[in-house]
Design goal:
This protein is an all-alpha fold. The protein has 8 helices and no strands. Helix 1 runs antiparallel to helix 2.
Length: 174
């Protein structure tokens, strides 16, 4: 795979977290949430267009976030809208229904468990910390990569997460 695909995944993680910080945490980057949302929509679409296997993972993550109510601010709504708009113009990748469903369940499980951990519904502190890591999707991507031999899939989700975490650490959130 092309290095720009990996760079796009990493950058998408950073930009998604920036939108989180602006919309949810009050990061003072005046009027930039929409611009960053537009940019991350472009990055997500780019990765999906360049890798049909990864498209299943990324679309599933977006769907799970929509179902979990995480696309709740203008910057995120524009991010999803711009991704869908770009895909509708260039062409949606061919999705594998079983992979899309598997990844959507894993991503939704992450959001559900993370919510339980955040709301202190998980009494065991270690399990609560693990739930807040949102690792079900990554473990699922790893398993699919082992099964298919397509390690780009796992690398892309790790790079997205690395960007997301890097932006979180920078903001003192990890």
């Amino acid at each position: 795979m092309a290095p720009e695909l990996f760079a796009a995944a990493f950058a998408a993680g950073i930009v998604v977290k920036l939108v989180d910080q602006i919309e949810d945490d009050g990061l003072k980057l005046k009027n930039t949430a929409l611009l960053f949302g537009l940019f991350y929509g472009f990055l997500l679409a780019y990765v999906m267009i360049k890798s049909s296997l990864a498209a299943n993972l990324w679309m599933a993550a977006v769907l799970a976030n929509v179902l979990a109510g995480k696309i709740d601010a203008p910057g995120h709504r524009l991010g999803v809208f711009s991704m869908l708009f770009i895909l509708s113009i260039i062409g949606f990748p061919k999705f594998d229904a079983s992979l899309l469903a598997l990844f959507a369940l894993a991503a939704y499980a992450d959001e559900f468990l993370e919510g339980l951990g955040e709301r202190k519904k998980i009494k065991n502190k270690s399990l609560s910390k693990i739930a807040r890591l949102r690792a079900v999707l990554e473990i699922t991507a790893f398993a699919v990569s082992v099964y298919t031999g397509q390690w780009t899939l796992f690398a892309l989700i790790l790079l997205f997460d690395a960007g997301y975490i890097a932006a979180s650490v920078r903001a003192g959130k990890y």
